[in-house]
């Protein structure tokens, strides 16, 4: 067997293999595990590619060759760009616009519903301070409520839904007659998040009665909502007077 100096094996061909893997997977959203090749590939499998040098790469070799020499770092993948269908999203807007023009009488029949989260007890993370004095921060307060707002293209707003953690908070009236007079609907679950059952209940108990009140019993409306697990597709089949369309995933 030919004896190859360590600098030759590690400094030339040896170090180019992990770099080639990193460059090849950069635009394809293929995770690399701690500079050991693609996902699931071990150090020994990657080092077997250097067959002519009979070289076994150790973890220390990868640390020196990859992290220090090429400045590669093990980092978290951000966003969900891979799940987004950009071509489908480009076709979505003109197709929905044509559908609205062809089948609905006006903007007052096209509704959009969406949720938001509100950490109403969270304190600011920034403040004015003296140059020689660093202020300490606060432990973030994670108490929150979730809101569901809905309106139409004509600018008309429906009564919002607020989801809290407790079924009967002390600040709200206990009897249903007084609670119905509030400026919002109120529901609760232990996480203060929207769930499929709460969305189902909102659709039948809040949205449909509001539509009958505004447009009469023979209404025909379009409802646009996010494509998420808290919005079950089966809800769109509960009432034939409502056409439900889901946005493309982010």
3D structure, described in words:
This protein is an alpha/beta fold and 250 residues long. It folds into two domains: 6-69, no CATH class; 83-126 and 139-246, no CATH class. It is built from six helices and six strands, in the order H-H-H-H-E-E-E-H-E-H-E-E. The longest helix is centred in the N-terminal third of the chain and has 21 residues, at 6-26. It is extended. The two termini are 55 Å apart. The model is unreliable at 1-13 and 27-43 (pLDDT under 50).
> Which bin fits the share of residues in helices?
25-40%
Strand order of the largest sheet: 4-3-2-1-5-6
Count of β-strands: 6
Number of helical segments? 6
Number of structurally distinct domains: 2
Radius of gyration, taken over Cα atoms and rounded to an integer in Å: 28 Å
**H and E string:** HHHHEEEHEHEE
Q: Uncertain regions: pLDDT < 50 for 5+ in a row?
A: 1-13, 27-43
> What proportion strand?
5-15%
Structural class: alpha/beta
Shape: extended
Instruction: Give a short account of the largest sheet.
Output: 6 strands, mixed
Whole-number average pLDDT?
A: 75
The separation of the N and C termini measures 55 Å
């Amino acid at each position: 067997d030919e004896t190859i100096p360590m600098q030759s094996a590690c400094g030339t061909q040896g170090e180019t293999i992990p770099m080639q893997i990193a460059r090849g997977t950069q635009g394809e959203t293929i995770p690399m595990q701690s500079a050991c090749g693609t996902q699931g590939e071990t150090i020994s499998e990657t080092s077997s590619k250097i067959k002519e040098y009979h070289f076994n790469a150790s973890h220390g070799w990868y640390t020196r060759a990859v992290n220090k020499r090429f400045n590669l770092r093990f980092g978290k993948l951000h966003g969900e760009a891979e799940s987004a269908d950009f071509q489908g999203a480009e076709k979505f807007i003109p197709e929905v616009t044509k559908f609205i023009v062809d089948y609905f009488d006006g903007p007052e029949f096209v509704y959009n519903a969406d949720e938001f989260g509100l950490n109403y007890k969270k304190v600011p993370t920034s403040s004015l301070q003296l140059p020689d004095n660093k202020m300490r921060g606060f432990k973030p307060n994670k108490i929150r409520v979730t809101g569901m707002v809905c309106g139409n293209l004509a600018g008309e707003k429906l009564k919002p839904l607020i989801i809290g953690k407790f079924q009967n908070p002390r600040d709200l009236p206990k009897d249903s007659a007084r609670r119905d007079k509030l400026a919002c609907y109120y529901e609760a679950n232990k996480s203060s998040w929207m769930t499929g059952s709460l969305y189902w209940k909102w659709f039948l108990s809040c949205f449909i009665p509001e539509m009958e009140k505004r447009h009469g019993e023979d209404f025909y409306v379009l409802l646009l909502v996010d494509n998420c697990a808290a919005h079950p597709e089966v809800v769109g089949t509960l009432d034939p007077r409502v056409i439900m369309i889901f946005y493309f995933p982010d």
